[in-house]
Amino acid sequence: MILKKLFLIGLVCAFLAPTNVFAEKGNWRNPGRWSFTPYLGANVATSRDMVNALSTTVAGAVTFSDGSQIDGTITASIGEVSFSDTHDPPLLTGFDVGYFLSHDLEVFGGFQFVTAGGNAPKVLDITAAGNFTDSAGTVTAIALNETANAEFDDYNSWAIKAGVTKYFPMADFTPYVGGYAGFKHVDKIRFKLKFVTASVESGKIKFYDSTDTGFFGFHTGVNKNMTIGGALVSLGVRGRLDYTPELSNDNSDVDLVGAGKTNDAGGGVDFGLTAHLTIPF
Against a cut of 0.90, is the pTM above it? Predict the structure, then answer.
């Protein structure tokens, strides 16, 4: 008798659990339903290098596009510098618009924007003397063992993308995985060269040109369905991996001092974390 009751209870639970889950997701994850998902977070890690290591010697006078000039015979060692050295952690924001093909499969298109403030890491160790002339014509001697920092422009990029997400609905939470690809634009990035001991600096030196390129990525996360103001919405967190190819080189200035390979730094993978709100409509 006890076994019979347990069997009946188990049978009822087996039918009720899927029905409840289906009802919950079926409230808005129905085929033909749309969703709007704004998100905000940060790229918390990146594999991108911004400056390649190089040793170079400048002989004679070289004038940069900002009007500043280096002359004499200056031998400099350029250190490898990563994006996390040249910029603050990037802020990541954007939105996706999705369309459900089934209860657990969604296609989407979206827009995202990334911005990061520029920093001034050390890039040069100078092992021979020379002179630096700023754009106003003031000449300053550059001594042996001088160092120089490069203050980079802010990083700004925007992208449009399209992709697909697979959901795994559960009673309380909905984990998911997905992938996407699209087009990305990155603004040009220049820098000011700041000599530490001499306390002089150049104007804006060209380094990376504006970049228009394809990119792709993957995301995964978890959503929590809830009702706000009588409307069923979803709150969630998402991790994402984006790969962007090498930025476009602008060697017009750095080639003048034999440092054109310093901005051949290759592509990079960004790891981002965001929080989002999904609104069905």
Answer: no
